[in-house]
Amino acid sequence: MEILIEQKGDFIISTDKSKLDLSFIHGYLSKEAYWSKNIPFDVVQTAANNSLNFGLYYKNRQIGYARVITDYATIAYLGDVFIISEFRGQGLSKWMLDKLMNHPGLQGLRRWILLTRDAHMLYKKYGWTEIASPEKWMEKHDPGVYAKTQE
């Protein structure tokens, strides 16, 4: 798949996996993100290797991230979306989501899914809605899985 690179001033969004700072991503996900506390580095690395990644950079320093798990035909799961606190409030998450949602390889999908605790209003701006029939959805969720792997 063709690598996407978009620039706005000193900021760049890129899907180039070779630019990803996996130590930075792991640090944020394992220590700051409520959804992935204690996630092991090798899990982050494997997830990135098997996803479409969107890195957000300021002067070549990674400051944000999002990844999409997809078959590029019918469905996509959006996860691990974050921008570090010192760069929030500048419209960067909206810019990243705009580039992500308009990525040529992600058009025409029947379904997009994501989980969020507190960013509903951001995603609603891009057409996301509450699940129409939650009674149809099922999950197998183990929120303590990363703590177990540390034991």
TrEMBL record:
Membrane-spanning residues = none
Q: Name one GO molecular function term.
A: acyltransferase activity, transferring groups other than amino-acyl groups
Family matches, as InterPro entries: Acetyltransferase_Butenolide, Acyl_CoA_acyltransferase, GNAT_dom
- Record bears the keyword Transferase: yes
Q: Where is the N-acetyltransferase domain?
A: 12-151
Q: Which domain of life is it from?
A: Bacteria
Gene3D superfamilies xrefs: 3.40.630.30
- Which Pfam families does this entry report, sorted A to Z? Acetyltransf_7
Q: Which UniProt keywords apply?
A: Transferase
State the CDD domains in the record: NAT_SF (cd04301)
Q: Per its record, how is this protein called by name?
A: Acetyltransferase (GNAT) domain-containing protein
Q: Organism, per UniProt?
A: Flavisolibacter ginsengisoli DSM 18119
